[in-house]
Structures are given as structure tokens and as C-alpha cells.
Amino acid sequence: MKIAFLQNIDGIAGSEKYFLALIPALIKKGVTVEMITVIKKSNREKAQPFLDLLQQQNIPFKSIYVANYASPSIPFKLNRYLKKNNFSILHTHLIYADVWAGLLKFINHKIKIISTKHGYHEDTYVKYCTNPAAIPKNLYYYLFKFSHKKMDASYACSAGLKDFYTKANLIKPGEMDVILHGFNYPAIVMDDLVKYRFSELQIIITGRLIPRKGHHFLLEVMPRLIHDFPHLKLVILGTGPLAATLKEQVKQLNIQEHILFLGFQQNVNQFLKASDLMAVTSYSEGLPLVIFEAFNAKTPVVTFNAIGCNELVKHETTGLIATAFELDSLYENMKKLLTDAPLRKKISENAYQALNNDFSLERMRDETIAYYQKVLTT
């Protein structure tokens, strides 16, 4: 069995972390795997950190550099490389790779293609996550449908995402499978608590500063929480286009002394371990890795009843779930955890156990191999 993973690379985000976990696990199990990266020439610098990580983990990879992702040469270059190296399956990730693979089927109908679905168009996903039937029938929509029809098989990384596609009429009921992500996280050994903890009570939120992450919801409830817990601090990790907007919101709410924008940090786990509560206020996710990271740090999570998030967090067992996008519900659930230290401990222990029992890398690896075998025999 010889598998080629395919994706365009513009940096390191959720799907790239997925590759760095799954591919070595597949290789150790005897599967031959190679990563094919398609990179815009203008994005060489952004892509290089991911290529460095592939090299560090001894993951074989092939990079194809192009002027833009619409280049008609890409399917032909892929076809030549796949044929020359006798790959059994092309495993695609994200819309560009799906479209290239769909076009590839016209010139090589024998190649088996599997697609993993990690999400949908960012802005559309935010706007229509609660009403997928109303998504616009635009170019992205039709490219998704075109590429999906060309695949031999597809699976989503969460049941909620599959449900979104079904309700949006992107796929037919029962037409897509689900393989949940799984990771093995090392135990976190604290460096120096003083470096990462800034108050008696500390909330943390991590991730890119983009609309889908819903940081503004959390900021809106902070004045009430600060009134209840005067020493409370919020640590915000991450960078992104909304940084200036969010800082202006903090200023308007007059809570500057309680909010720390710390930008991109390598040692996120240390900040998580040093915090009392993690907020995940996303409109929707595929399957949010930040929740796995919080589980591993034994930091309790409060999240919305949103796609992806509600598959990982079980209310009052492995976290608390607020009514989707309702500020009062978010406030009440956060206040509940901040008030009750024994509850925080109970939930964090339950979450840590769930992480290791239900979301292991071995489970994801074995389900992926079984999926490959199923596709090759049908």
C-alpha cells in the first residue's frame, strides 16, 4: 500500500498538525506514505517551517512550486509523479487538492482518490453554520460538489461537519464517512509557573485572530466576569487580521488591565497548564485541536454548542457547553467553573481520560488504514 497525501501549503494550521501526527504513525505500521506539497512561489517562506518539520520527522515529501493554484499544469504534474512512483491512493486535503484531484480523474481514471474534509470556506462557514441550507451557490460551492463527485471515497473529521455538508446539499445523506481526529500528547512538565500565570484566576483562549474563532463573544462577557472576579486575567494567544479590532473592543469595554495579547507562542501547553479555564468561542470548527490540547493540559473548557466543539465536549462531564452564541449562557457557564474549583478538577480529569480513551492516535491510524483497504478492494 503506497499513499500520497496532497495539499497546498501556506503555513502550519490544523491540517498540517494532522499530517505530522498521522503520517509517521502510518509509516510505523508499515504503510508507505509520501507528502506532496503544492506551494505558490510567493509563499515559499511561509511554507518552509512545515517542510522543515517534515524533514525533521523523516517524512518523505515532494514539493511542486507554482505561480498560482489555478495553474492548469498542476493535474498533469501530479499525474506524472503518481504514475512514475506507483502510488495506490491519492489522499487529498482542502479544496485546492480536491479540485486538482477531480481534474486528474479526467486524465487518469484508474487512480484511487480519497478526500478528507476539514471544513468549508471560512467566511461562509461562519455565516451559515447554523443555517447550512442557505449557503450561497457560488464558485466554491460548485467546485466542492464537482470534486466530491470525482472522489472514490470521502470522510469528514467530525460528524457535525458531515451534517453541515448534508444540510447544505453538498452531499447526499449517507454519502460521506467520518473518522475523528486522534492524537497522542506528551505529559506537560511545567517550566516556571510565574512565566505563564498572571493572576489568581486566569482564562485562556488560543487560535488565529479571525472571525470564525468568535473572540468578540468572550470579550463581551469579560466585564461581568471581572466584576465577579476582580483579579481575573484573560490571556489571548495568536495572531491574525482581527488583532487591531479586538484591541479596540478591549479599549471600548475599558478592560485593558485584565487582557493580555501575547501573540504567537511556541509553548502554548505551558500557558494552558497555568490557566484555570479555556474558552473556545468558535462559530464552528472541523474538529478543534485546541480542545484536545486543553484536555491534555487538564484545563477545563467552556465552549458553544457549535459544530465540532460539541463532539469533543460533553456537558458537565468533560467541559461546559453554552447555548450557541448567547452571551448570558457563556457568562453563566464560565462563572460556574471559575467559582467551583472542585468542579474544574473533576471535569479536567474526565476530559484527560476521554482524550486518551476515545481520541488516540492509534485509533485514528487504524481506522484510516482500514479505510484505505476498503477503497482498494471496492
UniProtKB/TrEMBL annotation:
One Gene Ontology MF term: glycosyltransferase activity
Sequence ranges assigned to domain Glycosyl transferase family in this UniProt record: 201-353
UniProt-recorded name of the protein: Glycosyltransferase
Which InterPro entries does the record match to this protein? Glyco_trans_1 (IPR001296), Glyco_trans_4-like_N (IPR028098)
Q: Which Pfam families match?
A: Glyco_transf_4, Glycos_transf_1
What's the superkingdom here?
Answer: Bacteria
Q: Where are the transmembrane segments?
A: none
Concerning SUPFAM superfamilies, the annotation shows: UDP-Glycosyltransferase/glycogen phosphorylase
Domain named Glycosyltransferase subfamily 4-like N-terminal: which ranges?
14-183
